[in-house]
Specification:
Blueprint lengths: L1 H15 L9 E4 L5 E9 L3 E6 L2 E6 L5 E3 L5 H11 L3 H8 L10 H21 L4 H14 L6 H14 L3 H11 L5 H17 L3 H12 L6 H20 L3 H14 L5 H17 L3 H13 L5 H17 L3 H14 L4 H4 L2
Antiparallel strand pairs: 1-2, 1-5, 2-3, 3-4
Helix pairs in contact: 2-3, 2-4, 3-4, 4-5, 4-6, 5-6, 6-7, 6-8, 7-8, 8-9, 8-10, 9-10, 10-11, 10-12, 11-12, 12-13, 12-14, 13-14, 14-15
Length: 345
């Protein structure tokens, strides 16, 4: 009996003792948010390799919604989720509390470094950060972390930073690198952005030809279709700049009529395009209303908002609204100090 009681007592003690924590696994989340667990054994700009119970699995980076690491610091995990939710300021605030020196695993260090640079770049483009400093930090990440699965995303962001600063040659090079990605939607995004860089340099026939090639591609899918819409907007602007503004207006009105205004970036570029077309046809009041749409409704895209403010600072003066012209000019200078649109004032 005593022996039985001892065994029972030992069993109870065993239940009460803390169990060793199980090592957390890395996770790769697919486009539908379903995670696959294992240990990440390889990363390139195109693929992530995960060892799942001794079986290697490869994931194309363009089909990965999120990657988490088993030894993620809580701050990094929280910041990453904030970025995915579009809460960039919250993510940056969290990352500033992260002790990067305490991270042992290189892959986790890289992720922390990337998201810090990513947040700085996004905020700079939105008008609440320094474009040049953000550009330098993100460029350094891409230069030194060439095998990161963030490479193409970072390169696209670098191209946008270059465009916003008027560094068109840099922008073209960066978008050309993005075009090396093996996926059609990435290639189209690169082509759209390259065409924008050409248009910004007033190379309108070349830009229009590139836009038309994008519109005519046989590829399909949600992101491909969105790039075709952006190319349509770009083509309309080129038409306006080459004497066919009325044709451009029709194209832009169709984009507005047939698409969801929840796509703020698309609608910001469309209304700016419409404003520029109206200016070409000597309709300044219509142009003012078009740019005002961007200022009031679609101002999340910093570059587009800066462009709208640039035009509003002049158009409000033309209708004897000096106070509103000054307000637009002041906001442009304060929020988008590094923007090419501020430098052209």
């Amino acid at each position: 009996m005593k022996r039985v009681m001892c065994v029972v007592a030992l069993a109870v003690v065993g239940l009460c003792l803390p169990r060793p924590a199980q090592a957390q696994l890395d996770k790769v989340f697919g486009p539908k948010g379903v995670p696959v667990e294992g240990t990440i054994t390889g990363i390139t700009p195109e693929k992530i390799t995960l060892d799942q119970a001794g079986t290697p699995r490869e994931f194309n980076v363009n089909e990965v919604a999120k990657v988490t690491f088993g030894d993620d610091p809580p701050e990094l995990a929280k910041a990453r989720d904030s970025v995915i939710a579009g809460q960039i300021e919250a993510a940056l605030t969290t990352l500033k509390t992260l002790n990067a020196g305490a991270i042992a695993r290189d892959l986790v260090k890289q992720d922390a470094e990337y998201y810090r640079a990513f947040c700085d770049a996004k905020l700079a483009l939105a008008g609440t950060g320094n474009l040049a400093a953000a550009d330098a930090a993100l460029f350094e990440f891409v230069r030194t972390k060439r095998d990161s699965y963030h490479t193409y995303e970072a390169t696209e962001l670098l191209g946008s930073l270059a465009l916003a600063q008027g560094k068109y040659s840099d922008a073209e090079k960066r978008f050309a690198f993005l075009g090396r990605a093996p996926w059609p939607d990435y290639k189209l995004r690169a082509n759209v952005m390259e065409a924008r860089a050409l248009a910004a340099q007033q190379k309108f026939p070349e830009a229009q030809a590139k836009y038309e090639a994008i519109i005519g591609t046989g590829e399909a899918g949600p992101e491909v279709n969105r790039q075709k819409l952006l190319a349509t907007v770009g083509k309309a602007i080129c038409l306006a700049e080459t004497g066919k503004a009325d044709e451009g207006i029709q194209m832009l009105e169709t984009v507005i009529r047939d698409n969801d205004s929840k796509d703020s970036a698309l609608f910001a570029k469309t209304y700016n395009g419409l404003g520029n077309c109206y200016l070409k046809t000597n309709r300044p009041k219509d142009a003012l209303l078009a740019f005002l749409h961007v200022d009031l409704l679609f101002n999340a895209d910093g570059e587009a908002h800066a462009e709208a403010l640039f035009h509003l600072s002049k158009l409000w003066g033309d209708v004897n609204k000096a106070d509103r012209a000054l307000a637009a000019r002041t906001l442009l200078k304060e929020r988008y100090a590094g923007s090419i649109w501020n430098k052209t004032q």
